[in-house]
């Protein structure tokens, strides 16, 4: 069983997740957001095997380059947003200069795709392509834990008014993929509190 830690980072309070085996001092990171100081301090003596990105909006990728250089780890992202890492206009950081400098990262080493299974830390993470908030949004399923980025929130859903967003695609992703999961799957969203598939299926007013 992996240890799961949450770090709320940057001006938009983006959730970064550290999955680790403390006894082996190894981990992986999902969505290292802006101003990642607390996360960087936590992993100072830890081997980081990979950075997994649910999508490439600026508030989710702000810490990518710092942590990649610090730990020498590879970055994974869906091909539909591969060039967003290198382009501040596409990742949105050029749109809101009041939130920080334009964010530019080197290209990812690996592409993610629907149905892909990643093997890290002795466990398997299934990749689910869940577009709508952005075209390359993915969710990562590890046993009963779903890391969904900005697709599904507690009593809410991701915004679709940014470039590449599509409400119909978002609702399809939630209803046809996420809501097919078991009720007791815990959802770890890109912002805010965690929830469960069952609770959202019964109570989320947007779906």
From TrEMBL:
<dbReference type="GO" id="GO:0046872">
    <property type="term" value="F:metal ion binding"/>
</dbReference>
<keyword id="KW-0862">Zinc</keyword>
<protein>
    <submittedName>
        <fullName>MBL fold metallo-hydrolase</fullName>
    </submittedName>
</protein>
<keyword id="KW-0378">Hydrolase</keyword>
<dbReference type="GO" id="GO:0016787">
    <property type="term" value="F:hydrolase activity"/>
</dbReference>
<keyword id="KW-0479">Metal-binding</keyword>
<dbReference type="InterPro" id="IPR051453">
    <property type="entry name" value="MBL_Glyoxalase_II"/>
</dbReference>
<dbReference type="Pfam" id="PF00753">
    <property type="entry name" value="Lactamase_B"/>
</dbReference>
<dbReference type="InterPro" id="IPR036866">
    <property type="entry name" value="RibonucZ/Hydroxyglut_hydro"/>
</dbReference>
<dbReference type="InterPro" id="IPR001279">
    <property type="entry name" value="Metallo-B-lactamas"/>
</dbReference>
<comment type="function">
    <text>Counteracts the endogenous Pycsar antiviral defense system. Phosphodiesterase that enables metal-dependent hydrolysis of host cyclic nucleotide Pycsar defense signals such as cCMP and cUMP.</text>
</comment>
<feature type="domain" description="Metallo-beta-lactamase">
    <location>
        <begin position="13"/>
        <end position="191"/>
    </location>
</feature>
């Amino acid at each position: 069983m992996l240890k799961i830690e949450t770090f709320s980072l940057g001006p938009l309070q983006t959730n970064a997740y550290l999955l680790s085996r403390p006894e082996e001092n190894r981990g992986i990171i999902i969505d290292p957001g802006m101003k990642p100081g607390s996360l960087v301090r936590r992993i100072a003596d830890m081997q980081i095997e990979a950075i997994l990105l649910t999508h490439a909006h600026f508030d989710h990728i702000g810490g990518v380059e710092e942590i990649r250089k610090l730990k020498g780890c590879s970055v994974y992202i869906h091909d539909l947003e591969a060039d967003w890492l290198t382009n501040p206009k596409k990742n949105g950081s050029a749109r809101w200069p009041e939130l920080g400098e334009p964010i530019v990262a080197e290209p990812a080493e690996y592409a993610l795709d629907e149905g892909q299974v990643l093997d890290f830390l002795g466990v398997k993470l299934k990749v689910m392509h869940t577009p709508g908030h952005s075209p390359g949004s993915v969710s990562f399923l590890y046993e009963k834990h779903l890391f969904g980025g900005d697709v599904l929130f507690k009593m809410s859903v991701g915004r679709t008014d940014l470039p590449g967003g599509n409400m119909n695609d978002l609702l399809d992703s939630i209803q046809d993929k996420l809501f097919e999961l078991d009720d007791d799957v815990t959802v770890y969203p890109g912002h805010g509190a965690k929830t469960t598939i069952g609770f959202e299926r019964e109570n989320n007013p947007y779906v």
